Amino acid sequence: MSTGGSDDGSEQGASPTGPGTQPTRPRPASIREGLLTVEDHLEKILRGVGPLAAYDQPLVESLGLPLHEAFVAPMDLPLFDNSSMDGYAVRAEDVAAADRDHPVMLPVVGEIQAGSARPFAISAGTAVKIMTGAPIPRGADAVVPFEDTDRGNARVQIYAPARPGARIRPKGDDVTKGDVVLPEGTVLGPREIGLLAALGAPRVKARPRPRVVVISTGSELREPGTHLDYDSINDGNSYMLAAAVREAGAICYRVGAVDDNPRTFQRVLSEQLVRADLVVTSGGISKGDHDVVKETLSALGTVEFNEVAMQPGKPQGFGRVFDEQTPIITLPGNAVSAYVSFEVFVLPAIRRMMGRTPYRRPMVHAVLASDIQSRPGVRQYVRGVFEVTHRGAKVTPLAGAGSHLIGTLAKANALIIVGEDQTALNMGDTVRTLVLDRPF
């Protein structure tokens, strides 16, 4: 029975040599000549994009970025011995005999609050009132909490002994100066950012978030909320892809839909490159008469269009454009095809540019809840619902395989992978699954 564990199997292949990569698997025999495998096309993309240059980033903006170099603690934490409770700093030997029946009376010679810059010292037979986080005065080696005293101000009665070191947080007890506290590649989350701030680091060296421009094409597309004619539709792709870009950790610039006019598309694309590390387009790359992306970019000679042995998402393209040599990934126009293509090709590219590994979403094994039929020669990505039950992980295929059915896409939280040489998966089989809402 599957437990829902991740797997770095053959689906993880085809990527440049280096961290987060796996060997390329053999080409399935059932794929017809002229089609690229998923691994072929992904390898081309990953070789065509590289990690962005790292530089010092403001700590407040570093969430989700991987450290470019290990962070070495520049100081101890705590920076000084301090009290872990409100109470009285004392010498342990002075209160060794204290109990409720025979309290020890000590004069209170001062008070230390957290943030107090004035050094303090106590002598034998005295006490200092102290607050949580305040530095331990010189000469004291223990703290008696208020609960074990009468809370006196001028003089205090101590009702319990305190061993040396009691309720004292020693200097360097948490972090020692010179320790590697965060290794290279650590993805910064709230906890790591909190540690860096506590260690006094206002900036960290990390790769920036890639700036990704998303362009959808089609004369029939309209902005959501505007009037629809009988032959027009809302532009859902650019919003979906923009959200996916942001979810991947990149910065997105969404461009409104561009008409099926080569000159218009080329002008818009050229104008956007000033703010783009990567361009992603949807639509206009199949075999129609008005496939503006393919027509325009083919003329440049720097973008290659191929058919990939996958369903949905057969037509794909990748290359670099104009003098800037900005990488561009072109996706199909049907909503499900665009989303699956993003997951399989664009997401790994963004993660590679950020320096995040693994590039590809790890697979999870799950038990199939109903049968799936597939044609040989293509890798099929079937929408499904993944869940973990008391029996283990299972995934249920959703009805409707059409690449335009965005309603079922919204219900799915997983993609079930049917291999190129498989024609059927049966209920009860253990299958490879990409769980879409699982962070990695």
Q: Would you give an account of this structure?
A:
Belongs to the MoeA family. It is an enzyme of class 2 (transferase). Keywords: Magnesium, Metal-binding, Molybdenum, Molybdenum cofactor biosynthesis, Transferase. The two termini are 23 Å apart. The chain has helices spanning 38-48, 190-198, 237-247, 262-272, 292-300, 335-354, 406-411; strands at 6-7, 55-58, 71-72, 82-83, 87-90, 104-112, 127-130, 142-145, 155-158, 168-169, 180-182, 203-206, 211-217, 221-222, 233-234, 251-258, 278-282, 303-307, 310-311, 315-321, 326-331, 363-368, 372-373, 379-389, 392-397, 414-418, 424-425, 430-435. Among the domains are: 30-54 and 208-354, MoaB/Mog-like domain (Molybdenum Cofactor Biosythetic Enzyme, Chain A); 82-169, Molybdopterin biosynthesis moeA protein, domain 3. Strand 24 and strand 25 form a beta hairpin. The chain is elongated. It is of the alpha/beta class and 440 residues long. Mean pLDDT is 92; it is low at 8-15 and 17-23. The chain is built from seven helices and 28 strands. The strands form eight sheets. It has a six-stranded mixed beta sheet with strand order 16-13-17-21-20-18, with helices on both faces. It has a five-stranded mixed barrel with strand order 22-25-24-26-28. Strands 8-5-7-6-9 form a five-stranded mixed beta sheet, with no helix packed on it.
